[in-house]
Amino acid sequence: MADFDPEAFLPYLLNRAAEAASLRFAQVYKDRFGLLRTDWRVLFHLGHYGPMTARDIGARAGIHKTKISRAVSRLEERRFLAREKSPDDRRVDHLSLTRAGRAAYAELSQTAADYDAQLTRDMTPAQAEALRGALKQLAAMRPALTGKPSRGL
Fold this sequence. Notes:
By secondary structure, this protein is mostly helical. It has helices at residues 10-33, 37-49, 54-61, 65-77, 99-119, 125-139; strands spanning 52-53, 81-85, 93-97.
């Protein structure tokens, strides 16, 4: 039996890398706008993709509906987000950014782009492109390679 090294286990490494890469940027959106991680992710999706429903955001971002609901409430309370009932289904809200939400998104998007450049500054363009490609490939994989339900790490 091969000796298993948890420190070399790819899901563990990916999780550590994601946390390390996210922490400093998380501090920016927290300090500047008082946003939590899920708030930023909802703001990002609405700013980047335009009006969506909470269900659309959840499907695209992989965020549980309860967390999205709380983030939507916080963003609405801060006047970053507006809700409009669907004329077809009164249980569904169409979400969009307000002027303040679009301004926050624009500022944070520029900050995110600058931070992204810092993360890859010690890589060659080919290395950065290879890393992005590999991460996109992993992100697109089916959740259960073993045939068992995914429970996360």
